[in-house]
Amino acid sequence: MNASEHTVRARRPRAAVMADVGRLAGVSHQTVSRVINGSASVRPETRQRVIAAMRELGYRPNSVARALATGRTNTLGVVGFDTTLYGPASTLFGIERAAHEAGYFMIVASLEALNRSSVTDAIERLRIHGVDGILVIAPHQEVADALAYAPIDVPLVAAEAGPVDVVPVVAVDQFAGAVIATRHLLDLGHQSVWHISGPSEWLESRERVDGWRQTLRAAGADPPPVLAGDWSARSGYDLGRRLSRDPAVTAIFAANDQMALGVLRAMHEAGREIPGNISVVGFDDVPESPYFTPPLTTVRQDFIEVGSRSLRLLVRMISGGERLPPSSRVQPELIVRASTTVARA
Predict the structure, then answer these.
(1) Which fold has domain 3-70?
(2) How far apart are CA 57 and CA 155, in angstroms?
(3) Closest Cα to residue 232, out of 266, 255, 206, 249?
(4) For residue 242, pLDDT beyond 90
């Protein structure tokens, strides 16, 4: 080391340590430690004094030392798949926001393939990183099946869908969403409702099919054949073209807004007026749905609430040591816009 380097290092201020914070706040370093670790035994005024001293000194807790002392890293793992889709991406955003508010960092493992080994490998990688708990965004059957083989020594919660008898699940009530969509069209006087579903391996898609089918049967209507899409606007367009050629079709329930958008385009090209000739309902309430032509009637899913509630449930498991707290269902909401109207006589 030359003289100039020695001078620069000598002038650099020493980083504050816990004892410095204690001296400034007039408390012991044990009290500072309890404040850092969120102990409820510290009086509010003392806590505020310690926090003020930490800010004044620019003190940053040593995360490694805290992890060794508490056995926790304040880090959570998230396993996700295809977060380019609106639902999983919005759920992940809700988890991230809730984690930040709860004082947790996040590590996200995004899967390229959906199978048991890829899911269990992702969970194992997160365990190696020492996460306190893991959230799995699990709308797919393969992911749900893999959770049955997940380790039991780390708190685990599934968001969107999953095997409720294996791990706690926080999800929108997809069955109820399909019921209110189908019931809305029947209440407008439509004799039947055609359904464009999502892929059958998606648990949400299956629940929407069940809700649609049971609502029609309860109304005394025979359910038409399910038309399977792939969540894309293109699949909705292709299936919409097929339905546009049948004059008996007056109501369509699409399992997401993107496929509903494809239906709107197909009907427009075929000269089938919406909602004059055909009423269309979507699912999700994506931000663009009020700006479709016409604005889309749809079922709103509160993905932010799903993410936030699943994070809170996981933190509860970490803090209280609950192995399998009850699952939670978020209720959907029908948003009526201009794509549905009373059926023509």
Answers:
(1) 434 Repressor (Amino-terminal Domain) (1.10.260)
(2) 36
(3) 255
(4) yes
